[in-house]
Amino acid sequence: MRKILRVVLAALLPQLALAQPFPAKPVRILCPFPPGGGVDITARAIAQELSAPLGQPVLVENRPGAGGNVAAAEVARAPADGYTLLLTLNALHAISPHLYAKLPFDAMQDFSFITPLVSFTNVLVAGPGSPLGSVKDVINAAKREPGKLSFASSGNGTNLHLTGELFKTMAGIDIVHVPYKGSAPALTDLMGGSVAMMFDTIPSAVSHVKSGKLRALAVTGATRSPLFPDVPTVAEAGMPGFEVVSWYGLIGPAGMAQAVVKRLNTEAAKAAGSNAFRGRMEPLGFEVIASTPERMAQMLAADSARWAAVIKAAGVTLN
């Protein structure tokens, strides 16, 4: 009789596990970049706040490589059970598909969108000894000597590179792009005077601006940054309509059950709105923007259309 019961229980265990309410085991969030950057900071902050309401450990695993494509491909291939998620950035879905001839995933169709989490803007910075003190100074200098000024970026095809290309197009100027392997070496050369200026993310640049190692000329958002209240927006500084906002969000593989998506959306939105999460993110220049899966998809579609036009106009391509 005991043998029969053991056989029956063994047969039922998988069904019982499936019937358990989500989550019944730890959830992992893949971070597509190395530890220490903005994506990693956000992933760890949201994971910490999600563990208690979900009743399970939420673990962050770093999977850097190919501008985020390695982690995205892994999540796209993962079981659609809600236990493997990605802390994504809008560039992975709105920029990469227009730059790479072939991606190992479909940026829109291979994922279940859960919620946007935080947004942030870029800031145009120059070295402390630079004669460039404003957007008008940049434009006037570039028009006097086309091709002499240079701007650094964290790499070809990155949001920072394309922000510079958009600036060039809207201002009608010729400035030379100098790509680096990340923001850190670009900032080092900028502070050393090797390049004239750079669009950097506010979370990355804020400490250098506050310490006087960099001079902030303008921010790329629609409104001024609370961290730099005296620094105008690019639009205020003479380029109406200029606006660049980047953001991070939470996604999973395509085909996730709606009940699981709803649970994750509800808990992630609450976590993002918590005092602990805001207290960690807002001093770095992030703004909480948690919303619905539908809104996240709409934001990505709008970003994709916009950056496709910028990429085409700039003629940027990657293998």
Structure description:
- The protein is an alpha/beta fold.
- It folds into 2 domains: 24-119 and 246-314, D-Maltodextrin-Binding Protein, domain 2 (3-Layer(aba) Sandwich); 121-219, Periplasmic binding protein-like II (D-Maltodextrin-Binding Protein, domain 2), CATH 3.40.190.10.
- Helices cover 44% and strands 19% of the residues.
- The protein contains 12 helices and 10 strands.
- It has helices at residues 2-19, 38-54, 69-77, 90-94, 96-99, 135-144, 159-171, 183-192, 202-211, 258-272, 275-281, 293-314, and strands at residues 27-31, 58-62, 84-89, 111-126, 150-153, 176-179, 197-201, 215-219, 245-253, 287-288.
- Strands 1, 2, 3, 4, 5, 6, 7, 8, 9 and 10 form a 10-stranded mixed sheet that branches.
- α2 packs across α10, α2 packs antiparallel against α11 (275-281) and α7 crosses α12.
- The protein is globular.
- The chain starts with a helix and ends in a 5-residue tail after the last helix.
- Residues 12-18 have low confidence and may be disordered.
